[in-house]
Amino acid sequence: MIFDRNENRPVIALLGAGAMGTAIVRRIANGKQILLGDISTENLQTVAHDLAASGYEVATQQVDALDRASVEAFATKAASLGEVRYFIDTAGASPNQSSPEHIVALDLVATAMAIDVFANVIARGGAGLVISSQTGYMMRLSDEVERQLALTPTEELAELDFLKHDAVASSGVAYMVSKRANHLRVRTAAATSWGDRGARINTISPGIIVTPLAYDEFRAAGENYQAMIDASPARRVGTSDEIAAAGSFLLGEQAAFITGTDLLIDGGVIAAINAGRFTLGG
User: Fold this and answer.
1) Predicted local distance difference test score (pLDDT) of residue 97
2) How far apart are CA 183 and CA 149, in angstroms?
3) Distance CA 95, CA 219 (A)
């Protein structure tokens, strides 16, 4: 049975088919063509089956986010399906899952690369969204380091002294730096490569959001997460649906004047830290 006979459907490309990205896609996918990219073929099959069973048009492609050729092939596939109107990047590794070097490579350098690659295929009037983290607000970097993270060509990022030494002191530090770099790279892209295409791009920085993968973090550092929840004004965790609501807004026409910015969605954790109600590692 053919569910949608309309031609020239706008394309949504999702890199990293996890819970938050999939929730955002569901919010905006009516009448559109979805392209899912993930390194896990098993995850692709599961997510694609669920979306197709709900009536969405879905294609998949295995993607290694660390490999530029693989990401470029994914972008080419997206463009072959139609006008690429939306790009969502959720690919990343958490501190208790990976080494500092891997986090810098995936969450920082590979994210910067994906932003570059999709700047070449995003349609005029299109929108991008990178899922960052509240941790991007948890470490103060010097103005010079921030300038380097924002403006260094992507192919030279990994060679920055700061990333080769300070940023890999621990997985936690690597994660904070990478997520701050997401904000800075998107801000730059909004004014340059994406702006030149007539497209917008923003970031979202979720706080403690319950997803299947989040339980690895809870098991490894549950007491610290509980302390953050208890100290936050919201006094609870967030959900993928709440991130999706904000994501759909930033990708939609009502946010047409918003680009190069980050939306912090953390239940007030960073506010509690800044007010002295919670101390990291305390």
Assistant:
1) 79
2) 10
3) 12
Distance of alpha carbon 187 from alpha carbon 189, whole angstroms: 6
Catalytic residue among 56, 86, 175, 225: 175
- Exposure string of 161-176, with b = 16+ CB inside 10 Å and e = fewer, is eebeeebbeebbbbbb
Contact (CB, 8 A) for 38 and 62: yes
Residue linked to tokens 């680009």: 259
Does the domain at 11-274 match CATH 3.40.47.40? Answer given as no
Quick one: average pLDDT of 255-265?
Answer: 98
Which three-class secondary structure string do you get for 45-93? HHHHHHHHHCCCEEEEEECCCCCHHHHHHHHHHHHHHCCEEEEEECCCC
Encoded tokens for 48: 């694609």
Prediction pTM value: 0.95
Concerning whether 175 is annotated as a catalytic residue, the answer is: yes
Candidate list 32, 56, 86, 179, residue with the active-site label: 179
Q: List pLDDT tens digits, range 163-221.
A: 999 888 899 999 999 999 999 999 999 999 999 999 999 999 999 998 877 777 777 66
Whether 179 is a known active-site residue: answer yes
Which one-letter DSSP state was computed for residue 32?
S
The model's pLDDT over 50-76, given as tens digits with 9 standing for 90+, comes to: 999 999 999 999 999 999 999 999 999
Give the model confidence (pLDDT) of 143-152 as tens digits: 999 999 999 9
Q: Tell me phi and psi for residue 224, to 5 degrees.
A: -70, -40
